[in-house]
Write a structure and sequence with these properties.
Shape: globular
Order of helices and strands: EHEHHEHHEHHEEEH
Distance between the termini: 20 Å
Oligomer: single chain
CATH class: Alpha Beta
Number of helices: 8
CATH architecture: 3-Layer(aba) Sandwich
Strand order of the largest sheet: 2-1-3-4-5
Number of strands: 7
Radius of gyration: 15 Å
Largest sheet: 5 strands, parallel
CATH superfamily: Flavin prenyltransferase-like
Bound molecules: flavin mononucleotide
Length: about 190
């Protein structure tokens, strides 16, 4: 019997780098992973539902109140083997650290069994936002709870500044996920 494909819950928050996440999602689907997506309302200002649904062939969890999807925040948290928030905005990182659960990403985080399954965050933001003491404290708190905080890239940011805070390049993100599952792209 063929092995069950690994299941990835890919969560997006509202950064200009959401387009890079789409590239990573595409690669993961091509590599044979089952990928489901969840997006904050702000993420959908950057990439459309149709893009995420088209890449994964599955509906995007983006509305807590949508009829027929009321239990997605529990079901998806049970379903996935790995959760990856990429890009992770300053706002969502600070919200997760505070335990706020009034959007799809926040509810999934609180429903996730952190002791049993990995939750990763790839931050993406302006350098000052990344260095802000509140963001640093949130990242430290989340790391202390067992969340894996992936490194950011350094370089030109969308705001025109150069520094820390760029989203990890999608190829690197995909490589981290492949390494985690011990998978190679055929
Ligand atoms: C063009 C544009 C680019 C943005 N890029 C980022 C970003 O890379 N990182 C970030 O933390 N916020 C960024 N923001 C601000 C967030 O979108 C904003 O804080 C939003 O409320 C985040 O919501 P969410 O965390 O619920 O997705 C950007 C805003 C705009 C208008």
């Amino acid at each position: 019997m063929a092995a069950q494909p690994n299941r990835i819950l890919f969560l997006l928050s509202g950064s200009i780098s959401c387009y890079k996440a789409c590239f990573a999602i595409s690669k993961l689907v091509q590599a044979g992973f089952e990928v489901r997506t969840a997006a904050t309302p702000a993420a959908l200002q950057f990439v459309g539902n149709a893009t995420l649904e088209g890449l994964t062939t599955k509906a995007v969890f983006s509305d807590l109140w949508k009829a027929g999807e009321a239990m997605d925040h529990i079901d998806l948290a049970r379903w996935a083997d790995l959760a990856v928030l990429a890009p992770g905005t300053a706002n969502t990182i600070n919200r997760l650290a505070a335990g706020l659960a009034d959007d799809p990403v926040g509810t999934l985080f609180l429903a996730w069994e952190l002791q049993k399954k990995p939750w990763w965050i790839a931050p993406a933001m302006n350098t000052q936002m990344f260095k802000h003491p509140i963001t640093r404290a949130s990242l430290d708190k989340l790391a202390g709870l067992g969340v894996r905080i992936l490194p950011t890239g350094t370089g030109q940011l969308a705001c025109g500044e150069t520094g820390e805070g760029r989203l990890l390049e999608p190829e690197q993100l995909v490589n981290e996920i492949l390494a985690h599952f011990g998978t190679k792209i055929a």
